[in-house]
## 1
Amino acid sequence: MKRFAALLLALCLAFTAMACAPKEEEAPRGADVLSQVSGLDADAVMLTVDGREVTNQMYLYWLTYTMESLSASMPSWVDDAGLLKWDEAASEDMTVEELVRQEALNTAKMYMVVENWAEEYGIALTEDEIAIIDQDLDTYAQQLGGQEMYDAYLWDQGLTADLNRRLSHTYYLYSKFHDAAMEPGSPLYIEDEVLYQYDGVTPDSVLVDHILLTKGDDAAANAEAYAAMEQILEMLDQSGDSAASVFSYIADQVSQDPGRPYCPYGYLVTEDAEFLPEFKEAALRLEEGQYSGIVETDAGYHILLRRPLRQYVADQYLSGLITVAMDNAEVTYSDAYEALDLRQFQIDYQTYTALHSAVKDLTGELEEAASGAGDTEA
């Protein structure tokens, strides 16, 4: 997620191009680099989604993220200067510029829909969950060298600490929608008539996740893999009510199943499904929420966990609901939204970051030179 790879332009070129950027007297220094470049007030409203406000800062962050994601994934849409070919056809009926605008707007709508739903359905982060998020952010700040370095890093990303925290909270709120989708009585609960409309999902299906360590080339390697699985099983036994969460964490970290990125919650298993026999037999014996002992197959050593069947479709289900909500959302736009020149914004942004990078490099060289001179004098 680390973005903003600035071009190393000559300082004279950077200063010349920056003459076209907003002047200091026209707009004060922004709360972040993107507000600085655009000359827009970071806290002013760019647009609203079903009455929820999206600030200039939020929209510019998503806009820049969209531009850089497309530049990285579609190099044919980027010219020799590193700028998007805005008039290039992105599809039969959409230019690159229209696609960028649409994707940035869709991201804004998605986040606002999630926040509105959280209020409407009474879904909120607990104090413990907020404390965990804050601890994660604080740990990252310390890794960067402290709060001052962290704030400077966020500024370069077009963020502030408050906005970064808000986006983190919204992300975790969405994960709580998954819990609501599996909770009877919840307004987001996946009813049976909806559940069994999904391909392959039947009343006889079970959803089984697993941790896999593959077998090695010799007995010693296999013994090592088995011993590691014994340690994992012991950790699960000691985790109590948190076993499912611990299982997920371990599986994400160590499981050697190449299909995990595509099936993060596991696999649908039925009597006639084509799985290794030992795996299938163990899967069908499990109760929901129960994990197995070590199961050996030709593929290696497994520990299985039976998950709630609704977890298999929760992503698709929620994505569909949110897409409908986004399509039906009432959006109002500010004059700044209508007036924003994406092409000039990208030019100004790249110029600014190139200047910023060059100045940082020069400062570092001067500090290194001064340190060297001091050592010599000593």
Note: The domain at 11-183+321-374 is CATH 1.10.4030 (Triger factor/SurA peptide-binding fold).
## 2
Amino acid sequence: MSKDLNKNSSSDKVKITPEALANGDVLCALIVRFLKNRTEENMMSVLFCLRDSNVFMPAEVTIGGKEIDKSMPIYPAVQNISIKPQLMKAADGNYYIPLFSREINAKAGELKKANLVNLPYTKCIDILENAEKCSRFVIDPYLYNFVLTENVIDISKHLPSRLENQDS
């Protein structure tokens, strides 16, 4: 990934707003595009979109030490909650934190009765950095199995936001 991260591309002409990224369809489409054509440009498009997106993470959620009722699977993340991500062990022996671009993608597989927490991707990085035995993400594991390795996650951490300035 040697490309200049701030280099303008044709995607710079599109207005990127939180509303455009809210349902995960854009992220999902970019992942599919990358999987069909594994170019550096397509990977960077995924990473820039991911940088500004919210994703869904299966996790055990507690507030004030009390576990949240799992019968209600969707929780927006708030500051006073504790989130322990559900881990997946792959055939290669590595552990991954699964993330989902869309809520429906999470329902394609078994969540082991975990809560599904909607978080900014940048917050997921913070959780990953504090996770034991785990240093990678897998996005939409039941559909696309899109793996983000340590190096790719590190690149994504340093990308600037491309969200349109809300003050303009």
Note: The chain has one domain: 7-162.
## 3
Amino acid sequence: MACIRSISGLRATLGTDLTPALVARYASAFGTVAPPGPIVVGRDGRPSGLWIEQVVIGALQACGRSVRVAGMVPTPTVQLLTEHSDAAGGIVITASHNPEAWNGLKFLGSDGVFLNAEMNALLWDHVDQDRYDLRSDQQHGNLVQLESAVHDHLERVLKLPAVATAPLASGERVVVDAVNASGSVIIPQLLQQMGYDVIALACDGSGRFPHTPEPLPENLTELARAVVDHGASYGVAVDPDADRLVLIDGSGTPIGEECTVALAAAAVYHAGGQGPAVVNYSTSRMIDAVAHGYDQTIYRSAVGEINVVERMRATGAVIGGEGSGGVIYPACHMGRDSVVALACISSYLRSRNITLRQAVDSLPRLTMIKHKIAVDAGLPLSSILDDVQMQLPPDAIIHRTDGLYASWTDRWVHVRGSNTEPIMRIIVEADRSDTAHDLLNLVQKLLTRHE
């Protein structure tokens, strides 16, 4: 099957790949390289997370670590609890949007942010060399259950500048699909505290996905129908570890994951936020229009949450994220957070007294196409992209920070290897549909020359 480690952490298929021995090695290595202090541990709700949690706790305690266990909570909850405490780091047991046959580990530094390339290299070296600081006297740290993790997260979110001043809802209905995973409790509670009547579609916390868990339109047909059937104002979908938010408008139409960060940026700026926005190269230019509309600057980074965060810190950004539906609002914490995104966007709608569809219609109408192809792990991607670059129109502005990013005034393309799957991603966006398709066809043709 597969085992993938990247700047986004470790992901593997259950059974022969994701074994207790593998989990113990990574957890022990993290307990060895992390600075002194307790470690926060949470899981996304997948059934396999229960045994993985036990292995992680045991491995950390064998390294003399005190462990704070949050249980089934979103990844951003673990990030927030780590950042706003004396914790030395955190481990989230999740495979994010990957199907149910997968699980994995995400590693956080003491700042609640995913490990950067240097720290990941150090962690991997300890794993590969079997270098662990295990205590020979078998003494271990304390085990603490964090009973108020969800409450603490919600309390901080509801005090955010882009949220606190908005009027409460008046009992409007909202349908929630949390794929029965870590958003099952916190998302409905957030909406209820903001005055909505919540229809819980897939929020039983069992970790049994009712459909393919990535919140893409083709996977949200039941949610779309439920929005219409219940006469709801909109629908909410999150992935298993609830760091990504996707919305369905009142007509049952998915607005697309790319709209999430653009609308969140509009919410922050509308509430008075001042400063740059940062997104990755694969994110729609819709957010450029929002930032420029408030006379703010937009910057881009390589794909990967840690890359966006580091760029945000370097530029003093007030909002950021990724076009996959992940929003980072530093006023809360430095991680992608669907709870933050939902609170900001819903508050924006109430503050302006507009519908979700009206908010989306205020954004530029662009055509984005996302395509992926399977790749051989040994394929020389860099040299292939060198050749593709040479064949593109010469007036392109090129960035090679993350694969190949080529842009023009009316279109752009980003080609890169995935951090989480054995595939190559091709994303194009243009002002016109035919322009987008022409660009995609050109890049595909150039890539197929190397098959």
Note: The two ends are 23 Å apart (CA to CA).
